[in-house]
Amino acid sequence: xxxxxxxxxxxxxxxxxxxxxxxxxxxxxxxxxxxxxxxxxxxxxxxxxxxxxxxxxxxxxxxxxxxxxxxxxxxxxxxxxxxxxxxxxxxxxxxxxxxxxxxxxxxxxxxxxxxxxxxxxxxxxxxxxxxxxxxxxxxxxxxxxxxxxxxxxxxxxxxxxxxxxxxxxxxxxxxxxxxxxxxxxxxxxxxxxxxxxxxxxxxxxxxxxxxxxxxxxxxxxxxxxxxxxx
Length: 230
Known about the structure:
Layout: E1 7-11, H1 13-21, H2 25-35, E2 38-40, H3 43-51, H4 60-71, E3 75-76, H5 85-99, E4 103-104, H6 115-129, E5 133-137, H7 141-148, H8 150-161, E6 166-167, E7 180-181, H9 183-192, H10 203-213, H11 220-229
Parallel strand pairs: 1-2, 1-5, 2-3, 5-7
Antiparallel strand pairs: 4-6
Helix pairs in contact: 1-4, 2-9, 3-6, 5-6, 7-8, 9-10, 10-11
C-alpha cells in the first residue's frame, strides 16, 4: 500500500458545509497538503453538498466552493481507491435500517440517521476491512453519540420527546469501532500547524465559535477549554 492510501478522512456533509459557510474551505486544502492521505466523500454526500444545492440560489455559492475542492482533487470519491458506489450504498442501506430500528419509543422506532451519515459509516467499515486507517469528520451530534455514547443519546432523546426509550442493545455492535472527528478539531489542528491565514490572539476562538454557530455540535465551555490549551 502506498503512503497516499495509508489513511483517510471521510467527510460528512455537515462538516464540509460548516467550512464552506464560514468561507474557510482553504483550510481543508491546506490540511490535505500536510495530511499525506486522502479526503473522501461518498456519492450520497456529493449529492447533499454539491449536486442538489448547486441548483438552489440560496446555497449555490457554498456548493461551488465545495465543487472546486472536488475538481482540484482535494476531495476525492471512493473510486480513487477502487471502491464502488454500489458497495457503499448497499452497506449504507443495511446500516440505515439497523440504526433506525435501534431506539424504540412507546409507539414507534426513533429515526436517527439518514443516508448521508450511513454512507460514511459504510465507507469507513469498507476501508477498515482493507486495513486503511480512517476517521469520519462529522458534526452531527446523533451520529457521534450513537458511536461513542449511545446511553447518553438515549437520555437526550427521552428528554427531548418525553418518551421512554428502549435500546436494542444487540444493534449497538454495528456502531462500535468507528473513529470520529469534528470540524472544530480540524480547525484546531490547522491553527496549531499555522495553516490559518488570520493572525491575532482571538483567532482560534473566533474560528471555533463561527463553526459552532454554523452547525458544529460543540459547547461554549468546550471552546473555552480548547482556547486555554491552544
